[in-house]
Amino acid sequence: VELGVTSIHDITAWEDWRTFERARRAGTLTVRVYARTPLADWERQRDLVAARGRGDDWLRLGGFKAYADGSLGSSTALFFEPYADLPSTSGVLAEDFHPAGAFEARVAGADRAGLQLSTHAIGEKANALVLDVYERVARAHGVRDRRFRIEHAQHLRRAEIARFGALGVIASMQPVHLADDGRWAGKRLGPERVRDSYVLRSLLDAGTRLAFGTDWPVAPLDPALGLAAAVGRQTLDGANPGGWLPDERITIAEALAAYTAGGAFAEFAESEKGVLAPGRLADLVVLSGDPLALAPERLGELRAEVTVAGGRVVFERSARP
Fold it and tell me: Domain limits of the chain?
């Protein structure tokens, strides 16, 4: 709440879910939690939802999280071609995809139960494989508002960019990572392939819904840093003052929408939150400055002065000792 966060989408182990439930019963939650449990035991959530429902607007079960590959930093993100600086590998297919067919079978089962899928995919091939499965399952089960998600979607070929919009798959991205990756990704991927990194502008232009987050604890939780990265695309080393891959910059209004309305849409809660409007949940943050008036390089300086969740002040900077 000190950073102005009022809702989180959490990767939730079942032990954590029980902790969240105790906090909800005690009335001590200060942020709203959309919890996603591991896909590998999807039947457990299915049965719990059938018996008790998904929860309420403070604590809600939100489907499943799975993994398709690793990370760019460890050279385990899965690509179609080998790494430029490590030609012995093109990445690793994650455990959720083993044995062959296991991932698709679980996605199909969860989708039949009406539950949402979120899958970590960073490399181009991992994203393509997940889109393939999502498309086959959706075709087999018929049209419904399923809002499949891919978490990260960091490196995408043009073909996959178009498929996100066409299939209605949400790109749940963390722009703060580009400020770090932009310093060294070119060496790892080569000058051509690196152009397909964090293609925010291209995804929006293809009609894709963006939902921004921070990937904490892997990256800093502060949304202001993500806003700065999405709009300015400057790298941490200062080597790209005009932006790393500047054609993929988006506007501050688009970035704010991805952090607010985009996140709400990604959890089926756009009628409850994501914008300030009559009848919506009384969640808001008062910032130290106007993000619409700041230069991109200043956005990271924004601070939360007051955070309100459910109509209750949960943080006030001036009240700190």
Answer: 7-281
**Both tokens assigned to 249:** 């910059």
Q: At which residue do the structure tokens 């963006």 appear?
A: 210
- Contact (Cβ atoms closer than 8 angstroms) between residue 129 and residue 75: no
Q: Name 248's Cβ contacts closer than 8 Å, sequence gap at least 6.
A: 198, 199, 200, 201, 202, 233
pTM exceeding the 0.85 threshold for the entire prediction: yes
The mean predicted confidence, pLDDT, of the chain is: 97
The CATH class of the 7-281 domain is alpha beta
What is the chain's length? 321
Residue 111 has pLDDT above 80, yes or no: yes
pLDDT in tens, 237-254: 999 999 999 999 999 999
Helices marked H in the chain: 14-26, 42-52, 102-112, 124-141, 158-167, 176-181, 185-189, 200-205, 223-232, 252-259, 261-266
Measured at the alpha carbon of residue 103, what is the angle toward residues 100 and 109, in degrees to the nearest 5? 125
